[in-house]
Amino acid sequence: MVNLSVQLAPKHPRGLLLANPVMTASGTFGYGTEDTHTFDVQRLGAIVCKGTTLEPKEGNRQPRLAETAGGLLNSIGLENIGVKALVKEKAPIWASWRIPVIVNIAGETVDDYARLASQLDGVAGISGLEVNISCPNMKAGGAEFGANPDSAAEVTTIVRKATSLPMLVKLTPNTSDIAKVALAVAEAGADAISLINTLKGMAIDIARRRPRLGNITGGLSGPALKPVALYMVYEVAGAVDLPIIGCGGIITAHDAIEFIMAGASAIQVGTASFPNPRAPLDVLEGIEQFMKKEGINNLAELVGAARR
Ligand SMILES: Cc1cc2nc3c(=O)[nH]c(=O)nc-3n(C[C@H](O)[C@H](O)[C@H](O)COP(=O)(O)O)c2cc1C
To answer: What are phi and psi of 275, to 5 degrees?
Structure first.
């Protein structure tokens, strides 16, 4: 038996222990409760649910998805059921699960994040928060909170005060110095850092002479994102002393192992679940096979292997 377990919040009194390092990426796996999932979701390390806002949201204008070379552009616009329905309808289901569920939260103001965090605190079935700081800061002209270290730290500080849960902060690649943002977030009290969210992009339909997305721009995910994500994980792993969760273009176990060797303690599978709903489980089984083949008993031996 290989030991795949990961502690994602070693500095937190309660911790956040995962039986294995494979998580779902927010927005690509619903709430984990849908009957469309083709495998036992409780075999994964943890589920990260769809981004949750204070009020329910219908999302952006259609079309919201456009395929690009090696990638996917999305402008879903955080369509979700809102925090009250999540607490009432989803958390009771999660409370009976043996794996942790992490709620991804999104706000337009710092105060939104604080209110979300306090409404989710102490709710049975919720084991942690993932703070999505890729959202536009409406009071600062719409720049992403995570684009600069100060606003990233401001959100982290306010959520830290509002929650007793382990807190992951999810970084955006749309910034000039990801390591500085990571450091600011670490100092402001994050338990772990997940990265990356989607990279801003667009596509144009030349027959219609119009952008392909109703929202004009969107976020790029999928294989095209992987080298950028891997580089950023490597950078951040060298800058902060916190567990890192790698995400961006992970399709196979090979991809996941690259992120782990770059310094990630856990990984998230996102877009890969659309063409292959079993992708997270395939990645998990592939990691396990690789470890057996290489004679590695403990996943921790692989974390940061490419850095040494
Ligand atoms: C359709 C779609 C919806 C997403 N929704 C969210 C979200 O609500 N919150 C969030 O933090 N990230 C969201 N993401 C970003 C993913 O969680 C992930 O960070 C990104 O897609 C990169 O990973 P991937 O290449 O494996 O998909 C979404 C991505 C996609 C494709």
So the answer is: -75, -25
Cβ(170) – ligand 1 distance below 6 Å: yes
Cis amide prior to 10 (ω within 30 degrees): no
Q: Are 177 and 150 in contact (CB under 8 A)?
A: no
| 49 belongs to the catalytic site | no
Residue 193, token pair as written in the block: 């850092």
Q: What b/e readout covers 258-290, taking b as 16+ CB neighbours within 10 angstroms?
A: bbbbbbbbbbbbbbbbeeeeebbbbbbebbbeb
Point out the catalytic residue in the list 78, 135, 236, 279.
135
pLDDT tens profile 141-169: 888 999 999 999 999 999 999 999 999 99
| Confidence tier at 138 by pLDDT (50, 70, 90) | confident
What local confidence, expressed as pLDDT, does residue 308 receive?
83
